[in-house]
Structures are given as C-alpha cells and as structure tokens.
Automatic annotation (TrEMBL):
<protein>
    <recommendedName>
        <fullName>Kinesin motor domain-containing protein</fullName>
    </recommendedName>
</protein>
<keyword id="KW-0067">ATP-binding</keyword>
<keyword id="KW-0175">Coiled coil</keyword>
<dbReference type="GO" id="GO:0051231">
    <property type="term" value="P:spindle elongation"/>
</dbReference>
<keyword id="KW-0547">Nucleotide-binding</keyword>
<dbReference type="GO" id="GO:0005875">
    <property type="term" value="C:microtubule associated complex"/>
</dbReference>
<dbReference type="InterPro" id="IPR001752">
    <property type="entry name" value="Kinesin_motor_dom"/>
</dbReference>
<feature type="binding site">
    <location>
        <begin position="154"/>
        <end position="161"/>
    </location>
    <ligand>
        <name>ATP</name>
    </ligand>
</feature>
<comment type="similarity">
    <text>Belongs to the TRAFAC class myosin-kinesin ATPase superfamily. Kinesin family.</text>
</comment>
<feature type="domain" description="Kinesin motor">
    <location>
        <begin position="73"/>
        <end position="404"/>
    </location>
</feature>
<dbReference type="GO" id="GO:0005737">
    <property type="term" value="C:cytoplasm"/>
</dbReference>
<keyword id="KW-0963">Cytoplasm</keyword>
<feature type="region of interest" description="Disordered">
    <location>
        <begin position="1"/>
        <end position="42"/>
    </location>
</feature>
<dbReference type="Pfam" id="PF00225">
    <property type="entry name" value="Kinesin"/>
</dbReference>
<feature type="compositionally biased region" description="Acidic residues">
    <location>
        <begin position="12"/>
        <end position="23"/>
    </location>
</feature>
<dbReference type="InterPro" id="IPR036961">
    <property type="entry name" value="Kinesin_motor_dom_sf"/>
</dbReference>
<dbReference type="InterPro" id="IPR036047">
    <property type="entry name" value="F-box-like_dom_sf"/>
</dbReference>
Length: 588
C-alpha cells in the first residue's frame, strides 16, 4: 500500500506513467494494489449519461440541488431523526418546523428556543434529500481543486453514522449492503465524484483518487487501514498544508473500491453499546479522499482533500450509563467535542488565538473550521422532548458555527515537466512562423523585382495611357516610373497579398511593419475588411466601388486600434497609395 504523502507535496516523480484504465475492468481490482491508477475520463461515459436510464449511472442522471453553498461560511444543516420506540413511549415532539425550511424552534421547560440554518430537515426527510443539499453542491468545487469537508455532529444516537454513511456502516459485514435509497451522504458523494470524473471530456484532464481512513480514539490517531500503525502524527507547514504522517493512502478507481476500504476500516473502528445507542461510535472517524487533477493543456496540477467526518456523539454520562473503559472514552469524547466548541467560539468571536492544538480532532479539522476548505456541517438531532436539552445544545453549537468564516482556495501548482513541454511546443511554433515570414519576405523582393522590370519595359506612351485612365498627373522630374505614377513598389506588393496574410505578417515581422507606415495602406486594408472581401486574393476592379468620401469615417473607427503603434510617420502623399492600388487592379 502506498504511504501517505501530502497532496501538495506530490512531486513529479510521484506521478506514475499514465495509462488508460477501463472503468469496467477497474471494478474487479482489489484494494491495496501498489500501482496508482490514473482515471482518464472517457467520452463514452458522457454518452452513458445522456441516456437517462442507463444502468451504469441511473440515479445520478437527474440530480440537482437547489442549495448554493457559501464558500466563505460554514454551511450548517439540521436533520431530525424519527423517534425510536423508547422515545415514543416516554416523550413527545418538541420541535416546530417553519415552512421556509430554514427556521426551527425547540421547546424545553416551557421556553421556546428559535434557530436559523441553511436548511432544516424534518424526520420524514430521505437520505437523498440530505445528500442533494449538503454534499452534491460541493462536487464541482472538489473537482476544481478545493478542499471540502462534510461533518456529522450531534448527540449520541442522533443519526450521524446513519446520515453520513448509512445504516449498517457500524458493522463491517453490512458496509455498503443497505438498500440503495438508504445510502448515506458519503457513498452518494463518492458515486457523484467518480461519475463526474468519468464523464469529463477525455483528453482534458487526468485524475487520481486516493483513500485514507483514520480514527481518533482516546486522543490518539489510528490508521483504520493498517491497525499496526498507531499514534499517527499531524503536521502542517505553509507549503504542504496539513497532513497525517504514515496514514495509508489507497489508490481508488471506483465506489466499490472505496467501499472495500470502508469495510476494512469499519472492522477496526471502535463501537460499543450504550444506553443511548446499541452501536455507538466511540471514535471520531475520518474518511479522507485525496483527488489530484492534471490539466493536460496547461500542465497544471490541482489537488483537493475531501474530509467525510463522523464525529462521536456528545453524551451526558449519567444518561448513557457508561462505566470503566467506556467512561474513559466518554470523557475523552466530551473533551474533544468541548475543544471543538471552544475553537468554534473563538472563530465566531474572531479571537486572535484559536485553540486548534487543544485536541487531535480540532488539529485535524483546522482546515474545515476557519481554514482552507468548503465546509458542510450536518447537525443530527432528536425531536423528542426526552432529548430537548441535547438538541438545544447541538443547535447552539451550529448557531456559532454559522458565524465561522473559511478561506478556501484552489490548490494548484504547475509541473516543471509540463512547463518544459509547453515551452518546447511554443518554440517550435515560433521557428515555423519565422520560416513563413522569411519565405514571404523573399516573395516580396521577387515580386518587387518583377514589377520594376515590367514598368521599365513600359514605354512612355503606355505609362501616359495608364495615367490618363486613372487621371494621375505625372511628376515630371521623377526617374522611376513608380514615382511618376505616385506608386510605391511596396504598395503594389501589398495589393497582391491576402489581407489576412498582411495582418499576420504585420503582427510578427518588424521590418514588414516598418515598411507599412503609409496610412493609406491601412485605409485600403480597412476598406477590404469592411467590404467583406477578405477572402479574395485579387480584387476585380469592377466590384471595387468604394466611396472614398467615406474612407475617412472608416478610418476614424479603426485608426486608434490599428495605427497608433504601427504608423508613426504620416504619408508624404496621402493619395498615392490608394491610387497605386487602383492602378494595379486596372492593369491586371
Ligand atoms: N433518519 C433516520 N431514520 C431512521 N433511523 C435512523 C435515522 N437516524 C438514525 N436512525 C437510527 O438511529 C440509531 C442511531 O443512529 P446512529 O448510529 O447513526 O447514531 P449516531 O449519531 O451515529 O450515534 P453515536 O454517536 O452513538 O455513534 C440507529 O439504529 C439508526 O439506524
């Protein structure tokens, strides 16, 4: 199995050779294989998804959430579970739900306590509703490279494991075996993440997913995937962020593999029977997903960590009736939850010192509360009067968590190899462009020579005929026929080139740009643009019915954009260039 490394510490050498893995074949792989799979999105998965009832991803097809997660704040949700048999006998309902699903009031000893949260779920709410609100809106951010945390908090027996994982997740042999509609937030989130990964357009990104599963028991961190590893340590630095040394990270390709990891871990998670819960979790469990995304086109690596946290329940020792070993556990559980409460209070009050180091749990959740993470906190409560005090205490905790501000950022870094590759590609492009420019320049010189020869062969009567036709007075002293006609050789060449070529050459070739100082050339070019004749190399003069009176207004529109940097000198004879072009078209 691969050892834990911080996400951001993944160096290029950590990335194994990329291979395309067929998700079908991936299903049969066993956990703990040494190779790190790369999850290449497949186009065919996209088409699966567009078929509404395809068996591969049936329940994901129409999933939508009406919740918009706050990135800065902790998003607090509340779920009330149905009464159990004892509660039904001993108590009554003490909760009033407001129809807006955001307000709730709890009655205790004749006093009503009101609270506001992002959404409140009454006992009849389904597992799917919880997932759609608390977790689905995070999926996009997770795959963008944000850290996310989903935490279940509440009194013992209030439904944290049920909501986060599902019924049966306290028993290794029942992990992942519950009915589909009873699956909790975490398995649904995993499915959604893998679904998104495989349905991204192939070739854009390559993903890798690793899973870790740890527990905090009696203030020590244990690796649930390798119980021989005890007392794991938490480290933090500005570069690598927060990481747990030595925690096993298992490369995972699909939900089935993560379920196998959960199954393995659940064997070692400490649970015990208490008066409040026949299968009470005695440790805080953290399922940690590490997702790396390599964006091929930009050579960027993004990495996110997803914390799915099933906290132990707060409990009144007198009520739960625990003794000896269980009592020590209960004291430790309460102590760490108290530390969490203190951290939340300090953050809510914007104190300078936040006591993250008071317990292992608060240290590990440093990103989730007040740090680099998007956080969804699910408060699990009973709505029965026998638990009213605990419910109020849970809701007060959530009330303070509402005031906590986080600072999530996309975890991103560039890969040196990819940057080198992109640089080489740009250099090759540049060399090719330079070749094209050289070729074009050679052609221009060649054409200039031909045109000069052509003009020198023209007798003075021919030149006069041309002059009469276009009504340009001859400059009597000029020796060069070009000058006589008021035509610049380069202007002539310009009229032979495709305007798009001209523009691209101007963009890349300094000497070309310098020769194109004459404003009239630009006028000509703009007229061509305006008249939509960019597609023709030679423009028949018959169709060339430009109203020269309007040239000024075209010119005004584009002058600033095109000319400012290019045409510093004003033409000596503003008419000459356009006349020259006109002449050339007439001659052809
Ligand atoms: N929404 C619900 N609908 C039906 N049954 C529920 C619901 N929530 C919890 N339960 C049941 O209540 C019992 C206690 O739930 P669970 O073990 O999830 O509590 P917990 O908060 O994780 O407790 P602990 O902190 O002691 O581990 C379980 O039998 C569970 O199946």
């Amino acid at each position: 199995m691969e050892e834990e490394k911080s996400l951001s510490s993944l160096s290029d050498s950590d990335e194994v050779e990329e291979s395309q893995i067929d998700p079908e074949e991936a299903k049969d792989k066993v956990i703990g294989e040494p190779e790190v799979p790369t999850l290449q999105p497949r186009k065919r998965y996209s088409s699966f998804i567009s078929q509404p009832n395809h068996p591969e991803v049936p329940e994901l097809v129409h999933q939508k959430s009406d919740i918009k997660m706050s990135k800065k704040g902790v998003n607090v949700f509340v779920r009330f579970r149905p009464d159990n048999a004892t509660e039904q006998k001993l108590g009554v309902q003490c909760v009033d739900y407001h129809p807006d699903q955001k307000k709730v009031s709890v009655s205790c000893d004749g006093i009503s306590h009101g609270f506001n949260f992002r959404r409140i779920f009454p006992p009849e709410s389904s597992q799917e509703q919880i997932f759609l609100s608390c977790a689905l809106p995070l999926v996009e951010s997770i795959l963008e490279g944000y850290n996310c945390a989903i935490l279940a908090y509440g009194q013992t027996g209030a439904g944290k494991t049920y909501s986060l994982l599902g019924p049966g997740y306290d028993h290794p042999e029942r992990v992942g075996k519950c009915d589909q509609e009873l699956r909790g937030v975490a398995p649904r989130l995993l499915q959604s993440i893998f679904h998104q990964i495989y349905s991204t357009v192939s070739g854009e990104a390559v993903y890798k997913v690793y899973t870790s599963y740890i527990q905090i028991y009696n203030e020590k961190i244990f690796d649930l995937l390798n119980p021989a590893k005890e007392k794991l340590k938490v480290y933090q630095d500005t570069d690598k962020g927060l990481w747990i040394t030595d925690a096993t990270k298992v490369p995972s390709k699909n939900v089935k593999e993560v379920n196998q990891i959960l199954e393995l871990g659940t064997k070692y998670r400490v649970t015990a029977a208490t008066n409040s819960n026949a299968e009470s979790s005695r440790s805080h469990a953290l399922l940690i997903l590490t997702i790396t995304k390599h964006l091929i086109n930009t050579g960027t690596y993004r990495a996110s960590q997803v914390y799915m946290v099933d906290l132990c329940g707060s409990e009144r020792i007198s009520k739960t009736g625990v003794v000896e070993e269980r009592l020590k556990e209960a004291q430790n559980i309460n102590k760490s939850l108290l530390s969490l409460g203190n951290v939340i209070n300090a953050l809510a009050e914007k104190r300078k010192h936040i006591p993250y180091r008071d317990s292992k749990m608060t240290r590990l959740l440093q990103n989730s509360f007040g740090g680099n993470s998007l956080t969804s906190l699910l408060l699990c409560c009973s709505s029965n009067s026998t638990n009213a005090l605990e419910t109020i205490s849970t809701l007060r905790f959530g009330d303070r968590a509402n005031m906590v501000h986080n600072r999530p950022v996309i975890n991103q870094r560039e890969s040196a190899d990819d940057l080198r590759r992109l640089l080489t590609e740009s250099n090759v492009k540049l060399i090719n462009q330079q070749k094209v420019i050289r070729y074009q320049n050679e052609r221009i010189i060649e054409m200039e020579t031909i045109i000069r020869e052509l003009f020198s062969m023209m007798g003075s009567s021919q030149v006069k005929a041309v002059q009469r036709k276009i009504q340009i007075p001859l400059a009597p002293m000029s020796r060069n026929p070009f000058d006589k006609l008021g035509v610049n050789t380069f202007v002539c060449i310009f009229s032979f080139l495709h305007p798009a070529d001209v523009l691209s050459m101007v963009g890349v070739c300094k000497s070309f740009r310098q020769r194109l100082k004459c404003e009239n050339l630009w006028r000509y070019f703009l007229i061509e643009l305006k008249q939509g004749r960019m597609g023709f190399k030679f423009i028949p003069v018959e169709t060339w019915d430009i109203n020269f009176d309007k040239v000024e207004s075209y010119w005004e529109i584009f002058k600033d954009k095109f000319i400012k940097s290019l045409a510093k000198g004003m033409p000596e004879d503003p008419e000459s260039a356009s006349r020259g072009i006109h002449l050339f078209h007439n001659m052809r």
